[in-house]
Amino acid sequence: MSKTALFFPGQASQYVGMGRELYDNSAEVRRMYELVSDLLETDIAKLSFEGPAEELKRTKYTQPAIMLHSLSALTVLGDDRPKFDFAAGHSLGEYAALAVTGALSFDTALKAVVRRATLMEEACVQNPGTMAAVMGLSEEQIESVCREASADGVVVPANFNSANQIVISGSLAGVEKACVLAKQAGAKRAMLLEVGGAFHSPLMSPARDGLREFLRDTPIAAPVVPVVANVTGSPVRNGEEIRLLLVDQITAPVRWAQTMKTLNDSGVTKVVEIGPGKVLTGMAKREMPQCEMSNLDTLADIRALTVVGA
């Protein structure tokens, strides 16, 4: 029996102009943008649609903007949302996965992401750092490289994205040393990324503490279908477990390769990525080759889906 998974992208999927047609098409979408604008004290619609790109790349704004885009697509889809058996999101995208499955209301998810993004940007200022993508080494090799490079500064695996790509995160000195060691170990590439900080590393600990406090009284229900959690790469259906995992996610690595393996093993044959860009379906084409892939980013994508009746 065919099974479908919904994917939701994370930070770095943003682009100037994303979501504009969805905003113009729906009063409910406009209301969500107004909610986030009030929380941020910034016109997030104007920033999303007009830029500048450098400002949109700031963690404080990027995360809510991407989240708004994904939830806007779901809102415009309405009853035409694809039927699905699993949901998963990459880092920030996990909140959209929780929203589509009913674990979080859309408004609660947006408020949580605004708080998360603000806390993470503050942590980036407090504990400056960076990230790098390494291609061609195994998980064991990456872990060994990070252990050795830690003599120069904090550095840990941050995103196990696929069999071929792992992102490391930490202090500038630690990450630079790890890149040198990775190349010596046979990595095809080891390159610094243009990011605002050392996400999914111990340097994000201040954000973890703040998010725990915020989520303490946030209602989290059991999702109607399993959400594959970043921290474990395994399905979760318990609200209290989700609360703990969202806090852990701030400093723990994203196990996206394990997420895709879990979905493969569960019989998923169709993946729909909802939100800006095609990063996750791009990775899934290599790791989930048996799956039919589609993307719901623009209003044209949504109209094409509803015409087909998928």
TrEMBL record:
<protein>
    <recommendedName>
        <fullName>Malonyl CoA-acyl carrier protein transacylase</fullName>
        <ecNumber>2.3.1.39</ecNumber>
    </recommendedName>
</protein>
<feature type="active site">
    <location>
        <position position="91"/>
    </location>
</feature>
<dbReference type="InterPro" id="IPR014043">
    <property type="entry name" value="Acyl_transferase_dom"/>
</dbReference>
<dbReference type="GO" id="GO:0004314">
    <property type="term" value="F:[acyl-carrier-protein] S-malonyltransferase activity"/>
</dbReference>
<dbReference type="InterPro" id="IPR024925">
    <property type="entry name" value="Malonyl_CoA-ACP_transAc"/>
</dbReference>
<feature type="domain" description="Malonyl-CoA:ACP transacylase (MAT)">
    <location>
        <begin position="7"/>
        <end position="301"/>
    </location>
</feature>
<dbReference type="GO" id="GO:0005829">
    <property type="term" value="C:cytosol"/>
</dbReference>
<keyword id="KW-0012">Acyltransferase</keyword>
<comment type="similarity">
    <text>Belongs to the fabD family.</text>
</comment>
<dbReference type="InterPro" id="IPR001227">
    <property type="entry name" value="Ac_transferase_dom_sf"/>
</dbReference>
<keyword id="KW-0808">Transferase</keyword>
<dbReference type="GO" id="GO:0006633">
    <property type="term" value="P:fatty acid biosynthetic process"/>
</dbReference>
<dbReference type="InterPro" id="IPR004410">
    <property type="entry name" value="Malonyl_CoA-ACP_transAc_FabD"/>
</dbReference>
<dbReference type="Pfam" id="PF00698">
    <property type="entry name" value="Acyl_transf_1"/>
</dbReference>
<feature type="active site">
    <location>
        <position position="200"/>
    </location>
</feature>
<dbReference type="InterPro" id="IPR050858">
    <property type="entry name" value="Mal-CoA-ACP_Trans/PKS_FabD"/>
</dbReference>
<dbReference type="InterPro" id="IPR016035">
    <property type="entry name" value="Acyl_Trfase/lysoPLipase"/>
</dbReference>
<dbReference type="InterPro" id="IPR016036">
    <property type="entry name" value="Malonyl_transacylase_ACP-bd"/>
</dbReference>
